[in-house]
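If you are new to this repository, start here. Below is one unmodified record pulled from the training split, so you can see the exact layout before writing a loader.
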Amino acid sequence: MKKLIIIIYHQISNIIVNDNNLGMVGNWNKCINEAKGDYIIPVLPEENVGEFFFRALRETISARQDVIVPLGERLGFDMSGWMSVLRDLIDGARSNALGAEDLEKAKAQSIAVAKKIYDGADTSLTLESVRQDLAPHIEEIKEVAQAFDGDPTAVAGRLGKGLCAFCAVAAEYEGAAWKELLRLSKTNPSARRTENPQLQQAMETLRQSLDARLLHSVALRQDVVDYITELFELAKEGLEKFQAYKREFGLVDFVDQETKVLGLLNSSKGAELRKAIKERVKVVMVDEFQDTSPLQLAIFLKLNEIVGRSVWVGDPKQSIYAFRGADPSFMGEILNGVEAADRARVAKGEKSLVSSLPYSWRSRKNLIEFSNEVFARTFPSIQKADVQLGLDPSEAQKSERQGGRICVWEKQGDYRYSGDALFADLAGRVKRLFAGDAPRLGRFRDLAILLRTNKECFKMSTALQREGLPVSVGGGELKKDPIAYLGMCAYRVAFSLKDTAAAEILRRYVPGVDLEAFDDAEQNMTPFEMLERAIVAFGVEDYVRSGLNREQGLATLEALRDLCREYMSDCGLRGVPATQSGFIQYFAESEKEGASAAGGDCIQGMTYHKAKGL
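And here is the target side for that same chain:
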């Protein structure tokens, strides 16, 4: 019977299955030499987990979609929204080592909380009753919607169109019904600029009724309870489906590795491993502790028990791995316990074992003071002394640690400060930083822009490029990047000269392109070989190198190559052939993030997540 060996080293990438050497500790080469494994189980890359997850649950979701889809839509969640919640629920269960029974208890607790919020006391407020109340005013509502069409600041226009959609379906409504009613209940009456006093009064009467009754609706409560129930039932079934799917293809993922390590450390079979750790490890060092998941916490505690000494370093302000089950509140709870024990130790005359890191060694004084003010407001539940930093006294006197310019830009114009107008305004201001005989910034790479989401990064990049500024801003989906799309057009033409749409794109952007660059002899290529040959033969790479955004474009082409490698690796993991046509479909379905150029004289843009450590 085969035994499972978990190799613990710098970056776990494979699990070796072997008859001997149950527990080993050391670097990769040492463990490989000792293992003499019979075969290797591939570890599923994190970027592929989501795709495999949805494949595994496809049948399960399909069987229940007639229930969950309309429920989600009535509550304001499209399919991607509730699928994301489902993925988080399953990941949370796996990161906390929770099984079906635990999820059943969690479902009951969630429903109990929901019933406290939605008490169900009002049995008469339903979606159909609201439709009937609005039916006499539907034509007037349409007029309001049309009057404000195209005005993004007009609450009445958005509200009118939403109510028209709400009223349009007499039976089963397939839109965000409750969401629209909640919006209506919270809308300021003065914001609805309508010339029709009767309509305004009718809408205000309905608004007041909804504001007073909505959370008491038994129909809304039932939808919420059914939604929670469906998600947990999907999660329970999904846990086993996902595990079975990975077993079918002989795969493990990051959480599987953690689970198996913890199981081995706690089992009688892990005695040899525990002995090896105790002999070879003097102290367990845990960095970035704020990103610890409950499962990892259990591993750290077990390692501390084995070794007898550990050092954990973390900062709750920097927690970024919630998608892996990380919860900075764990750090707070553990710190409270450690500090309480430490105070008791000090009271006995023993040395304190808890230290704080109160100084910043990277930034200038003004920037430190600015970030202190921001963080103190962002984390009101944490004592200021635990959030704010200062300069070490020996550093505070140095001239290079003084100053640091903080400049606040205020909005200009009447537009609502969001969307494309926001990014266009910012891009214009950025351009002025480099304008004139005495620009405030001399090199584009001296400027970095931090944004919250990848979508914002993509919009910022677009606005900067319209101003003629070189920019490296990752964000958005790779398949929506113009350069990636151009590269795929080259690939599609190489695959088939009959793809006239792709050929037309190449002619438009690559002057003098030779569409006969491929012959039949070159068709017998792997997808990666064809992509590489097409990018060069059809002049796409030369086009990118000659452009203003050279670094960004080259990074995008490299990201496209990486996606092709990923496709071929994915096919290998699933035991299916990697075909030329298959990569076209893979690209179309991919959600891979767009590229960000490294180096070069261009403005750098990134999300807060990627900026960590700057």
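Two things worth knowing about this chain: The first helix runs from residue 28 to 35. Confidence is low (pLDDT under 50) at residues 1-39, 169-175.
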